[in-house]
Amino acid sequence: MENFRTHLQFLLYFLLFLHSLPFSYAKCTDTEREALLAFKTGLTDPSGRLSSWRGDDCCKWAGVKCSSNQTVTHLDLKNPYPQANGGIIDQTAYKASCLAGNISSSLLRLPSLSYLDMSLNDFQGNEIPAFLGQLNDLTYLNLSFSSFGGEIPPQLGNLSKLQVLDLYADSYGGTAAAELRADDLNWLTRLASLNRLNMGFVRINTSNGGDWLHAVSMLPSLVELKLQYCQLQVLPQSLSLGTNFPSISVLDLSDNSFNAPIPQWLFNLTGLRELYLRWNFLHGPVPSEFARLKSLEILDLSNNLDFGGQIPGLFGSLRKLKVLDLSANDMNGGIQEFISGFAGSPSSSLMFLDLSSNSLEGQLPDLLGVVLHNLQHLDLSSNRFWGSIPNSVGEKMSSLKHLDISYNNMNGSIPDSFGQLSALIDVNLVENSWVGVLKETHMVNLRSLENFKLTTDSSNHSLIFNVPVKWVPPFKLKSIQLENCIVGPSFPAWLQVQNQLTSVTLRNVGISDTIPGEWFSNLPSELTFLVLSSNQITGKLPSQQLKFPRLSTIDLSSNNFEGPLPMWSTNASVLYLQDNKFSGSIPENFGKLMPRLQKVYLSQNQLVGKIPSSMCDMQELQILSLRNNRVSGEIPDCWYHSFMFWAIDVSNNSLTGKIPASFGSLRSLSILLLSSNRFDGEIPASLQNCTGLTSMDLGNNRFSGVLPSWIGTKFQSLFMLNLQLNSFSGPIFPQFCSLPNLHILDLSGNKFSGAVPKCLPNLTAMVEGRSGEVFEQLLLVAMKGRKMELDAILANGNGINLSGNNLTGNIPGEITKLSALRILNLSRNQLSGEITNGIGDLQHLEALDVSHNHLMGSIPPSLATIASLLHLNLSYNSLQGRIPTGLQRFNDPSVFIGNPSLCGRPLPPCPRNNGTLITTIK
User: Fold this and answer.
1) Where does the UniProt annotation locate this protein (predicted)?
2) Domain boundary among 257, 288, 321
3) What CA–CA distance (Å, rounded) separates 33 from 55?
4) Is residue 445 part of a domain?
């Protein structure tokens, strides 16, 4: 009997032990094992995530969980690749870890399956299988971020036990695919147990705009509803009978096309904790009924451009509110009322406040830091605030981590209390007009600071850094941006101990010192951004290739650096070295040392030697500027793979030879500036392939031959054509009148012959006066840092200069139809005939020069009616008669000299015979 009792006790303990084992140790049935293997067969698994799916015990396989009675209940095949949290993911690595293929109906042989997660995979536009609606025990279904396409099968409505349905249809890193859509939402109404629904990025097509609201409101257990980016257009202003959301706590309707006020029914959802309505077209003022949502913790109403008015004080009554985002709306006025609304609360819970990109104005109230002392994130950027930062921000906001007041009109000082923000990580104060002195006390306790951005009005240096020479900051910065304030003249010693910097901008900060060589070597290899422009920094730079493998932007422009060009990073995409004293030649292996360069500005230096052919290997090159150097030799003819190359400026050098035929392969070429060199030959026929050309300047070279007529037919986007001071000959073909966007035409100083084309009115930009803003922006980029030269070019806008040629015949009357013309120079030709009286139609004309021709007749009186005319030269022709009244404002005789039969002020008076004026009347 005793033995029996002992055996029974042992058996009970053994059974309890078995019961205590985790589900994953239960052995599944052969039927379910075979079902899973059949399911695996339908999938592609490039990274071998399912390699453990072998052997008899499928409950031990990756992603599989079983119940105590040996049945499979969980299938979790979510992609384990780490999500990027808004950062850039490695697409190749992500796709390699994705499951793809087809979901097999063998899953129906898993009768107890309650949990299925296939998220973050790549099913490449395949439809969601309808048979999933037969998995009757399913409580959790997640197919998000998996690139499913087609219509959501309504059979999913049969899953009566389903509690969580996540069909979020953005592709994450998979196939940017096929669109997932829902043509009918009636199937949703049968999911009585559903408490979480996410159909973000699903295109919801409903015959009646309000159907979506009726369908989801019939889910009595719904707690969380996310319908962001569903292309919804109708936001019903009232609920239909029987419609309610008794349990809803999270509602996301952002990124749709709602063009309406915020509906009143929302304010009946008093259990709401999170409400997202960003990126719609909501309009009207902020409803006062928001005060009823006492449970609200997160409210995002950002990016509704017509949603505005003054921000009310009601938000202060929402004691649980932690996040408030009203950015990118039309909020206006001051924020005194808004801030005062929090004064009645014993302690505000608000941790995140974004009011950026509105039209808010006024001074920041000192109450700001007092009542919002728990803030961790404060963004007031891109408004019209002015004055100083309140003392209370530094004194009370001890938890503040992120502060952004950039792009405002702040014109006061930064208080000493700013230095008490010991939790501050990021501060952005750029594009304001700060004044005063920054001292050690401003930064004494900023021990958490990582990113510091501060710029002032560029017109003066009204902010000065004044810290002890041996001051050691309490922080370790990762990025710093200081512009238009005084940090120099010496290179700051406190910056030299910052050895974790990945981004450095010190633009126009008054440094006129040399940079200690060890500073460059102490910078971390993670450095990505280096800008030291617009100072007076002197000396040579380290010539060796420094180890900055991630450095993408190098801007040392507008200084006094000397010596060879710095070759620091194989990863650089931007190299701004213009306006210095760099000398020597461009390294022959330049293209191999910096193969990823997109923008290369080396202008205004003392460079010599040739343009290296290795530049042709820089397949990402977009802009090359070598202007104002002493570069010589020929341009290498190897530009066959530079498909992104759109701007070339090698003006004012000593280059020779012909335009490379390979330039014709630059199909993206927009700006070609070759002036003031010694190029010769003809314009190559291959250049006509560059049909996007907007500016071609070949002036002051030795080009010759007849001008190709295809310029007028191929270059339909041409804004500026400058061929002055060459040896082009032959007629000006009528095809040149087919340039509808031409604003500047300069063919002066050549050997053109024949007549001035009568078709000039076909230059419609000079008739209609269309804006050349797009071209100006392109040219501004290409001529970076050369504003005076750019202004000189644009000053000739809507101008024609045909002077210094051998043109004959009359000035065509048709030229007066160019009603937007500002500059006309036909001087030093062989033109004859009279100046048409229609010249007065050119009411925007600012400069007219027809000197040194053979023009006859009287000066048209209409010329005096052109009020905009500032420069006039009619000298050395055969004009006659009295100078018309009104032209006496040109009081310089040189304007009219060389016309023996002209008279009247400012020339000598006209002669009289018996009181009668002697004139020649035709």
Assistant:
1) Cell membrane
2) 257
3) 9
4) no
Structure tokens at 450: 């990582």
Closest CA to 348 of 311, 300, 392, 297: 297
Q: Is residue 666 part of a domain?
A: yes
DSSP assignment, residue 816? Answer: G
Classify residue 94: in a domain, yes or no.
Answer: yes
What's the pTM?
Answer: 0.84
Domain of 48, in residue numbers: 23-257
Where is the domain boundary, 214, 230, 257? 257
Residue 765 above 80 pLDDT?
Answer: yes
Q: Determine the pLDDT at residue 776.
A: 58
159: number of Cβ within 10 Å = 23
Whole-angstrom distance, CA of residue 473 vs CA of residue 446: 8
Read off the amino acid at residue 131: F
Instruction: Report the alpha-carbon distance of residue 442 to residue 387 in Å, rounded.
Output: 18
Cα 313 to Cα 334, 358, 371, 442, distances in angstroms: 12, 17, 12, 32
**% the chain with pLDDT above 90:** 80
Which stretches of 190-317 are DSSP H helices? 211-216
pLDDT for 91 equals: 79
Residue 789 lies in a domain: yes
The angle formed by the CA atoms of residues 605, 611 and 614, to the nearest 5 degrees, is 125
Domain count, the chain: 2
CATH number at residue 96: 3.80.10.10
CA 143 – CA 115 distance, rounded (Å): 11
The first and second tokens of residue 495, run together, are 């910056």
**φ, ψ of residue 239 in degrees (nearest 5):** -95, 145
Tell whether the model's pLDDT for residue 785 goes beyond 90. Answer: no
Q: Which two tokens stand for residue 360?
A: 């808010």
List the one residue out of 640, 649, 644 whose CA is nearest residue 622. Answer: 644
Q: Which amino acid is at 779?
A: L
Which of 486, 482, 480 has the alpha carbon at shortest distance from 510?
Answer: 486
